[in-house]
Amino acid sequence: MDIFIQQVINGLTTGSVYALVALGYTMVYGVIQLINFAHGEVVMIGAMVAFSVITALAGTASPLPPAVILLAGVAAAIPACMAIGYLLERVAYRPLRHAPRLAPLITAIGMSIILQHLALLVWSRNPLAFPQIVDNPVFSIGGAAITGVQIAIILLSVVLMALLTWFVYRTRFGIAIRATAENVHVASLMGVDANRVIAATFIIAAALAAVAGVMVGTYYGITHYTMGFMLGLKAFSAAVLGGIGNLAGAMLGGILLGLVEALGAGYIGELTDMCKWPLMKEVVAERCAADGHLVLMGSNYQDVFAFLVLIAVLVFRPSGLLGERVSERA
Amino acid sequence: MRFPVKTISLAVVSALLVFGCGKEAPKQQAAAPQTPAAPPPLMVVKIGHVGPLTGGIAHLGKDNENGALLAIDEANAAGISLDGKKVTFELVREDDQADPKIGNTVAQKLVDAKVVGVVGHLNSGTTIPASSIYNQAGLPMISGSATNPALTQQGFKNVFRVVGRDDQQGPAVADYLIGQFKPKTAAVIDDATPYGEGLANEVEKKLKEAGVKVLPREKGTDKTIDWKAVLTKIKGKKPDVVFYGGMDATGGPLLKQARELKIAATFSFGDGGCTDKMAELAGAAAEGMVCSQAGIPVQAAGRKFLDGYKAAFKIDPILYAPFTYDATHLLIAAMKKADSSDPAKYLPVLATISHDGASGNIQFDDKGDRKDAEMTIFAMKGGKIAPIAIIKSGKSMTVDEYASAGAAAQPAAAPAAMSGMGGMAGAPAEKK
Amino acid sequence: MNLRDKQPALYWCGVALVAIALIALPLVLTLVGTAWVRITNLAILFIFLALGLNIVVGFAGLLDLGYIAFYAVGAYVYALLASPHFGLHLPFWIILPIGAFFACVAGALLGAPTLRLRGDYLAIVTLGFGEIVRILVNNLSSPFNITNGPKGITRIDPFRIGELEFYNSDTWMGILFTGPAKYYYILLLILMAVIVINLRLQQSRIGRAWVAIREDEIAAKSCGINTRNVKLLAFAMGASFGGIAGGMFSAIQGFVSPESFILHESIMVLSMVVLGGMGNVWGVIAGALLLSFVPELLRYTVEPAQQALFGRMLIDPEVLRMLIFGAALVLTMRFRPAGLWPESRHRQEFSGEHRS
Lengths: 330, 432, 356
What we know:
B: Rossmann fold, 2 domains, C: two-stranded antiparallel ribbon, 71% helix, globular
């Protein structure tokens, strides 16, 4: 049982990060019905900028307390990512808003490649060790271990999601965003500056991505210029799972995907151990006698789960778990 | 409208192709005329070297190239005559970007450039396909770093390596684990790369032979940084030792997360995870980890090589430079013995040669593998990896014992001279 | 009016000149260095891939980011049926169609569940599919060894017709034909066939149906086009070209491993199609040649240029290549969205604003 609890904790942590990144996809999709393919790279840039700031501040034997250094890293990463988000909107999306749908997608792929390789030039192609400055105490819950960083990630995600929800549903600007998402033309007629709203959406999404980037860096202790890509894809899958364009859906999808991955990687090996299958037992008896195990699919398929979830959702319930929007246009 | 488009496109096609070769022609010719133009008493003998000079492991490729270059310079300084002619050796350097496609192209370039032998490539993934091109051209090749057993199992007479195979390195680290920790249960994880999986397979085989219970293999990728799910599963089975076949970039997070999960087992790694970077990535969790490197530690390499390398390149060798250095010297020694730079004449000599190099005495077995290749075991102490044992012919000895045993002929650097490893800190070795 | 009707003599002269140039090319290149024949062969393989992807992306307007998976399927089918791995050594003219068939099935498998999706969704799902295929190939070495995992498959048989070995050098009529040169001729032959098939396809009923779907799926449907079948066909046909290219890649390299089929390769092929001109066969060929030879040129120009200018290497040619690919995608879409050599119909589509 403690193993199961442990896997749930693991899943919740990665799921929280997925959820934050998924929110970015879902918000942008909401207003322009396009996937911001380069969103994962924004996460990476966030982690990289925070890495540089934290390394610089922590390296000088400064009297600053670790928490302040970490906050400084986040404080630097957020505006940097916001600038990248704005740049993406201006370069990749705004000029092509009326082009065929393939065009902005291809541009975004191009931007993603460019951002990755610019990051490579700035921060080197080697994996960078994220300075581990904050104490990371390990607590025990029912035999399972949970670290301080994990608790912080989960709590911070919840706070940020609550803030975002308040912003979108309770503020004037949030109403403008929702109006634009509903119908750009009508919103424009009602006096909403659609360009401003769309740019703002990109910027908010990028800010969330920056925080997610710092979380990933602190949690795993490593950053690399390719780290954003897979993370972005998984977060996108999470957004689709929850129902793209739906904030609550992105959060739910993120958490669910995190759990699916952790539990999947944890248990698929035992489930596909053919020595335990009543029907296969006889067929593979020889191999089982030699080894005791004959695992068909192990943790090596961990990265496949996100894609399988994605395909399954799109085939069986294209609007996602909570989505009300029918994805005819997608 | 049909015709113009067609002609223009074809014209562009042809123009591009012509442009492509036109661009290249001067370069090729610049390199080529030296052989025929040399008057009889002087002869230029070209030896090829291939390694990745761009891309993720460019620093390792450069290190290999430096090793070969040093050997060439030494041979030229010594003044060697073959068949009555004074010989100048020249190193033709190529970049394979660690990509098998490009590896084949540059192999062909070396054949075109009429080299008489090749040192390289660095990765097994590029060395194996390229070896058949060299085989066809009858060129001897010696790799200083390709550890995949399949390389010498192809039955090519021209293929050699001076570094230990995966199935020599794997058993060494497994033997050490068995001897030191007497494990009952072991977990083996790999990163699903040719290197990581190959090594993990060999470790698992050896552990099983010794009666250790090995859990079903867990795998990540060469980019996996979240190992918690896998480690949690392993934690439930309470292994005594864990072996990870993979690089430091993934091994560091693995080690860190294992300690966060309170897994008490001893963690061990192959040479990909045998760097100081592990301490940076895993912090205090890295302390006490065990790892192995194929061959002898750079510090134990011959003093002559170490001094020469430092003098020539102003830096310390990183990883496989002693092996490419030896490989180059081997080619030259075989030519000297055969008194010819004709591959057909010196190849049989090379197969039976015995040579004392920077990495100890080298002889090849009938497959072209090195007989009795040494392996070194390291442990993490105070954030640095330190050699604790050298394993040769199944026997374990300390670095000092090895040096005084005179295997390297020259007194080896004291273990205190760890600076060479400093260079490795930022150098994750990638899939060899 | 075209030149063939107006001045047939001039036209056929031109054709003959081009034909002679193409036939003489490997012999000339061999003089410079056999390596350049190999590079040309790889470029031709990329033309196959780009033309195959062009069917899906250019003709039918379905963005496929996992195209390299079909290349992998073809390459592995060839490797498994003609290497000591399973001890099978079938001749290539049997394997290539089998490879094409398997790739075709894989294409249909991918197409079937994703037919309802368009644009961005499809792009991500195909990307996922490409990754799944690569992960499968990488992991199907246990518990039963099918693909030999990350180590790849070595000693794959070269092409062989009776006594004629494509691997060795031969001298005929006093002219030396190296292995790569012989492969060049067979690649050229297949390339001609592929180009003809593509041109005919474009003009055919199916080709026009693809364009109709690309332009407006709902309108196409109401015109009586069975959009499901026609889209499936695009996937299947595109995939089978990839499968054939993969088989030839296997034979020429003599070695395959999963690392040859990463996402970068898909993006590179996509760049070729986009840069050259989606939907235009000649444009795509030009795009493929351009992007195949640019990296080679970079290798010889970037390093000396940087050494001369800055005294050291600041940007690896490899990084520069990726930056150029990225910039090519962005700038093409921004300033020449129909590609450098656009297809006439596409040009109209991308210049007009008939979508909001």
